[in-house]
Design goal:
With about 190 residues, this protein is mostly helical. It contains seven helices and no strands. It starts with a helix and ends with a helix.
C-alpha cells in the first residue's frame, strides 16, 4: 500500500507533467479568462489521460512489443489520444450544453501532456495497471497545477505586478516557483 502512496505522490507532485516536464502548458494563457471552461478542460484531461494510459499500455505491451513494432508507438499513441479525446468530446457535448461547441477539446486532443505521460509510462516500463494508475495520478497532478494557477491568477489581479509581467509571464514565474516547491517534497522524502 505504501508503494502506491509514494507512486501517487511521485506522479502527481514531484514529477508533475506540467512542472517537471513542461508539457501541457497550452491552457496557461486561458487560465484567467474563463474559469469554468478551464476546470472542464482539466477534468476532461483526467479522463482522457487515464483512458489513454490504459489503452496505450495495452496496445504497447500486447500488440506492439510482440509484433516488434515499437517504432510505431508515437503514431499509434497519437491516434489513440485523438480517438479518446474525440469520444469524450462527443459524450460530453450531448450531456453538457455549456461547452461552447467543444472549445476545450481540440486543445485537449493535441495537448502534449497526454502524449508525454504515455511516453513516460512506456519509457519506465510500467505495467498496464501501474501505467494506468500513473496516468491517473499525473492527470490529478495536472489538475492541481491548473487549479492552483487559476487561484494565483485571481489573487494577482489585485496585486501590483509590473506591466511587462502581467498575464502569462507572471503565471510562468508562479509555475516555476511551484515546480521548485514540488521538487522540495522529494528532498524531504529522502
Amino acid at each position: 500500500m505504501m508503494n502506491y502512496v509514494v507512486f501517487a505522490v511521485e506522479a502527481a507532485l514531484i514529477s508533475n507533467i506540467a512542472l517537471s516536464y513542461f508539457l501541457g502548458l497550452s491552457p496557461f494563457p486561458e487560465i484567467g479568462k474563463d474559469k469554468k471552461q478551464t476546470c472542464i478542460g482539466a477534468l476532461a484531461m483526467v479522463i482522457v489521460m487515464t483512458l489513454s494510459s490504459l489503452i496505450c499500455g495495452v496496445i504497447y505491451r500486447y500488440i506492439l512489443v510482440p509484433a516488434n513494432a515499437v517504432q510505431a508507438k508515437t503514431v499509434v499513441f497519437v491516434v489513440v489520444i485523438l480517438a479518446a479525446s474525440g469520444l469524450l468530446a462527443l459524450l460530453l457535448r450531448k450531456r453538457a450544453g455549456e461547452l461552447e461547441s467543444g472549445k476545450a477539446f481540440p486543445v485537449l486532443a493535441v495537448n502534449t501532456a497526454v502524449l508525454g505521460t504515455v511516453l513516460v509510462i512506456v519509457q519506465n516500463d510500467y505495467g498496464v495497471l501501474n501505467g494506468t494508475f500513473y496516468g491517473f495520478m499525473a492527470a490529478v497532478g495536472y489538475l492541481i497545477v491548473i487549479a492552483m494557477l487559476s487561484s494565483i491568477d485571481d489573487e494577482l489581479k489585485y496585486s501590483d505586478v509590473p506591466k511587462s509581467f502581467r498575464g502569462v509571464p507572471i503565471l510562468l514565474v508562479a509555475a516555476g516557483l511551484m515546480a521548485i516547491a514540488f521538487h522540495g517534497i522529494e528532498v524531504l522524502g529522502g
